[in-house]
Design a protein that fits this description.
The complex is a heterodimer of chains A (about 260) and B (about 300). Chain A has about 260 residues and is an alpha/beta fold. Helix content of chain A is about 35%, strand content about 25%. Chain B has a two-stranded antiparallel ribbon. The chains are: A alpha/beta (about 260), B mainly alpha (about 300).
C-alpha cells in the first residue's frame, strides 16, 4: 500500500541550522497494516508523515501509494489517497464553517468540485448517523460552527472527516497529544474503532508507549531519520515497555530520549 | 433640511460603495487577504465603463465589461501571490500601481472622461437619485443572490475553507492557490462593477478616483458587521450589513461635510474610522477579557462549556 524508498530530507541545507531529518528512510506497508510510530525528539516521525502528505518535496527518494508514484504530486492532489489528522486540533477543520459544511467538504475529497449544491439533502441524515457513535452529541448540532467545539470534539470530527471518504492511507500525527488524558483516551478509542472496522492502512505517531504497544499490528521506532526497530504480529503483542527500550538501545546505540514519552510514562 | 435634501444622494452613493465593499468582503473576510488591488480596480471599472459608453456601447454591456476587467486585475494579483510567492499585500500594491498606467491607457492618456452632454443612456445618474437608488438596489439584490448561491456550491464552500483553514483545505484535496486566484477575481470583478456604476452616477471617470477605496470598503464592512453579527452571523445577513455599512458611511460623510469639515480632510476621517474599528477589538481583548483558568479542563466540563457556547 505504501512504499518509501531511500527517502532523504535536509532542512536549511548549507547553513548552520542544517538539520537532516530523513536519512535514507525505507518503509513498506502492507494493505491493512495499522502501524504505530514511536521515536525520540527529532527522530523524523512528523517529517516522514509530512513527506508522505506532500507538504514539501524530499531531496531524494521515492514515495509510492497503492502503486502510484506520488513523489512529485502536489499536496492537494495527493489528498485523494490520504486521510490526515494533525497534532493541533485547530488544524484539521474549518472553524468558521458549520459541522455539516466541514463534513461535506471532506466527503468530496479527491473529486472534482462542481457548481452544484454543496450539501445534498440526504447528506445531513447520513452525517448524523456517522456522528452518533462518537458519543459527543455532535449529531444534534450539525449547523453549529466548528470553532465552538472543544479540542477533543474537533479532533474526533477531523478523524471522521479524514475517513469519511475511505483513504488508501490514514496519517495520524500525534493526534491525541494536545488533549487531556481522558479525552485523548476517548479519541484513541474512536480511532481504533474506525481503523479496525474499515481495515484502514494507518500510520499513527504516538508519544505513549502503552498505546504504541496496545494498538495496531505493527510498531516501528525511528531514530535519526531511519526506522531502527520494526516489530509486528505476535512479537508485538507480547512486547513490554522495558523490552522496547532495550531493543531501541541495541539498535540505535543510544538511550531513548523523548520528553513527551518520558513525561507520559 | 439641507441634510434631508442630501439624504437620497448619500443613500445612492452609499449603495454603490456598499456593493464595492461586498467585493472587499470576499477578499478580506472570506479569503483572509487584505487586497489593495481594489484601489486600482474600482478606477479600472470606472474607466472601462466611461470609455465604452462614450463610444456608444450600451451601458449594461459596459458594466459587464468593467466586471471582467476587474476580474482580470484580480487574477493578476492572485498569480503574483500564488505563482510567484509575493506576499498578498505586496502583490495587491504592485497590481494597483500597474493599473494606474493601464487606467491612463484606457482613458486614452487623458486624466478625465465625462459622460455629460453626449446624451448617453445610463443605468443610473446623480440627476435622479430615487431612480439611482432603485437601480443600484436591484443590482445589489441580484449580486447578493448570486453570491449566496455560489458560496453554498461545492466550489463556493471550498473557497470559504481556503480562507478559513488552508491546512485543512489542502488536506481535503482543495487547490488553495487556484481558489485564491478565483476569489480575488470575483472580488475585484465586483469592485470594478461598482466602479462602473459609480462612473455613471457621477457622470465621469477620473484617473485619481478610487484612491483609498479599500479604506472605505473596510469602513463599510466594520460598520455593517458590528450590527449584523449581533442580529444573525450568517452570510446573507453579513452582506446586507455591509451594504448598510456603506450607506451609513455616506450619511456620516455628508453630515460631516454639512457641519463644515473641509473635503480635504475626508480621507483622514475615513482612515481614522477604520483605525478605530481595527483597534477596538484588539484593545478590548488586551485589557477587558476575564482571565481564564489555567488549570486543565476535564472533558466533561469542556463539553458542557462548548454546548453552552
Amino acid at each position: 500500500m505504501l512504499k518509501i524508498t531511500n527517502l532523504q530530507k535536509t532542512f536549511n541545507p548549507g547553513t548552520v541550522n542544517a538539520k537532516t531529518a530523513l536519512c535514507g528512510l525505507d518503509l513498506y506497508l502492507e494493505d491493512g497494516d495499522f502501524v504505530t510510530v514511536i521515536g525520540g525528539n527529532g527522530a523524523g516521525k512528523s517529517t516522514m508523515l509530512n513527506a508522505i502528505a506532500g507538504v514539501w518535496k524530499p531531496d531524494y527518494g521515492t514515495i509510492e501509494i497503492d502503486g502510484v508514484d506520488v513523489t512529485a504530486m502536489p499536496e492537494h492532489k495527493r489528498a485523494k489517497f490520504l486521510g490526515r489528522v494533525f497534532q493541533d486540533p485547530m488544524k484539521g477543520s474549518s472553524p468558521d464553517m458549520e459541522i455539516d459544511e466541514n463534513l461535506s467538504i471532506a466527503a468530496r475529497r479527491g473529486t472534482k468540485r462542481k457548481l452544484v449544491w454543496g450539501i445534498k439533502k440526504n447528506e445531513r441524515a447520513e452525517y448524523r448517523k456517522l456522528l452518533e457513535p462518537l458519543g459527543l452529541g455532535l449529531e444534534n448540532r450539525l449547523s453549529a460552527k466548528v470553532g465552538l467545539l472543544s479540542g477533543g470534539q474537533r479532533q474526533a470530527l477531523t478523524l471522521l472527516m479524514a475517513t469519511l471518504r475511505r483513504p488508501k492511507l490514514l496519517l495520524l500525527d500525534e493526534h491525541t497529544a494536545a488533549l487531556d488524558p481522558k479525552t485523548a483516551a476517548k479519541v484513541l478509542e474512536i480511532t481504533d474503532k474506525i481503523v479496525t472496522e474499515n481495515k484502514l492502512t494507518t500510520l499513527m505517531i504516538t508519544h505513549n508507549m502503552h498505546d504504541a504497544i496496545a494498538y495496531g499490528n505493527r510498531l516501528i521506532m525511528m531514530h535519526e531519520g531511519k526506522v531502527v526497530v520494526d516489530v509486528s504480529g505476535e512479537d508485538k503483542k507480547k512486547l513490554t515497555i522495558a523490552e522496547l527500550l532495550g531493543l531501541f538501545e541495541k539498535a540505535s546505540g543510544s538511550e531513548f530520549a523523548n520528553d513527551k514519552v518520558m513525561l507520559s510514562k | 433640511m439641507v441634510f434631508l435634501n442630501a439624504l437620497p444622494g448619500a443613500v445612492a452613493e452609499g449603495l454603490i460603495w456598499g456593493l464595492m465593499a461586498i467585493g472587499v468582503y470576499i477578499s478580506y473576510k472570506i479569503l483572509d487577504i487584505a487586497d489593495l488591488t481594489v484601489d486600482g480596480s474600482i478606477c479600472t471599472g470606472m474607466c472601462v465603463c466611461a470609455m465604452l459608453i462614450t463610444n456608444g456601447v450600451p451601458a449594461w454591456i459596459s458594466v459587464i465589461a468593467a466586471f471582467l476587467a476587474g476580474a482580470l486585475a484580480g487574477i493578476v494579483t492572485g498569480l503574483l501571490h500564488t505563482l510567484f510567492g509575493i506576499p498578498s499585500i505586496l502583490a495587491g500594491i504592485l497590481t494597483q500601481l500597474m493599473l494606474y498606467s493601464v487606467n491612463l491607457a484606457i482613458l486614452g492618456g487623458k486624466s478625465l472622461v465625462t459622460l455629460y452632454g453626449g446624451n448617453h443612456s445610463l443605468l443610473l445618474s446623480m440627476s435622479d437619485n430615487i431612480m439611482a437608488i432603485v437601480v443600484a438596489g436591484l443590482l445589489i439584490v441580484a449580486t447578493i443572490i448570486c453570491l449566496w448561491l455560489f458560496f453554498y456550491t461545492e466550489v463556493g464552500l471550498t473557497l470559504k475553507s481556503t480562507g478559513d483553514n488552508p491546512d485543512m483545505s489542502r488536506a481535503q484535496g482543495i487547490n488553495v492557490d487556484f481558489n485564491k486566484v478565483l476569489g480575488l477575481a470575483i472580488s475585484n470583478g465586483i469592485v470594478a462593477f461598482a466602479g462602473a456604476l459609480l462612473a455613471q452616477y457621477k457622470g465621469s471617470a477620473n484617473i485619481n478616483d478610487g484612491r483609498g477605496a479599500i479604506v472605505i470598503g473596510l469602513a463599510a464592512i466594520f460598520i455593517g458587521l458590528s450590527v449584523s453579527m449581533k442580529i444573525k452571523p450568517n452570510f446573507v445577513v453579513s452582506l446586507i450589513g455591509v451594504i448598510g455599512g456603506g450607506i451609513v458611511y455616506y450619511i456620516i460623510y455628508n453630515f460631516v461635510i454639512l457641519l463644515g469639515l473641509k473635503t480635504d480632510y475626508l480621507k483622514m476621517l475615513s482612515a481614522i474610522i477604520v483605525a478605530i474599528f481595527l483597534a477596538v477589538p484588539y484593545l478590548k481583548g488586551k485589557y477587558f477579557t476575564k482571565k481564564k483558568s489555567i488549570l486543565p479542563i476535564t472533558s466533561e466540563k469542556e463539553k458542557e462549556g462548548a454546548e453552552n457556547a
